[in-house]
Amino acid sequence: MFIPLRPIPIKERNSMIFIGMGKVDVKDGAFVVIDKTGERMHIPIGSIVCLMLEPGTRISHAAVKLAAQTGTLVIWVGEAGVRLYSAGQPGGARSDKLLYQAQLALDADLRLKVARKMFELRFGETAPQRRSIEQLRGIEGARVRKTYNTLAQQYGVQWHGRRYDPKDWDAGDKINQCLSAATACLYGVTEAAILAAGYAPAIGFIHSGKPLSFVYDIADIVKFETVIPVAFAIAAKNPFKPDKDVRLACREVFRRSNILKRLIPLIEEVLAAGNIATPAPPEDAQPPAIPEPQNLGDAGHRA
Description:
By secondary structure, this protein is of the alpha/beta class. Helices cover about 45% and strands about 10% of the residues. It has 2 domains: about 10-85, CATH 3.100.10.20; about 95-270, Four Helix Bundle (Hemerythrin (Met), subunit A) (Up-down Bundle).
């Protein structure tokens, strides 16, 4: 008897798994990684938020399909987790929420309200009155630079600023390598949460013009309480391969901080600052011919 797959909520999952140098496939209905010796490693794909595929990894059509059915974001990453490309539809299947997000972003007053809420959540205080988004960005930038300097002093790390070349991993110093690896982990789980909630990663409010603008907006709210201190702590140990240590530490801090339980409510809280209702469908819109089955996952997951 065939039992249909149904995504489980993001808050009940583990954060991420990195896979390198193997073939990802489906065998006997299970998600597996097969290495060159033919040995298999089973992965409980339905309980993972995102799957990071490193260089040297191949994935079958059946595996991508299974990841999509279980609501797991598949991300192709470069060296040390630098983001390259992603696929495997894990969510975003809610036109009402996409229209709601777009309406907030297109109206200047509503966009400012959302940006002010992001500032409040990030710094724990109300944003200054009569400031534009550009001015808020300037205040934010000054505080971020100060925070970086404070963390560098706290962990005894030499700090010369956030400098890195996405095309040349080795060009960055140890702390910048750690920061890049840490933020890549956070961006992965944040994008998965945004899609699971039914929203678009590209429609940002402070950031714009990038495929992950909204991901950067949301991740910036929590990164200094989660992954940035991790990056400085790892860099202080001067590891030979910092990216692996950073990934393991990020996964642990995600677990301790319950970040997966916080992300979707955080997204909703940020957008609710616009104080508008989700738009209703037009009266003459054609309803679905086949009713959607009940979904056990998040709002954006396909049933």
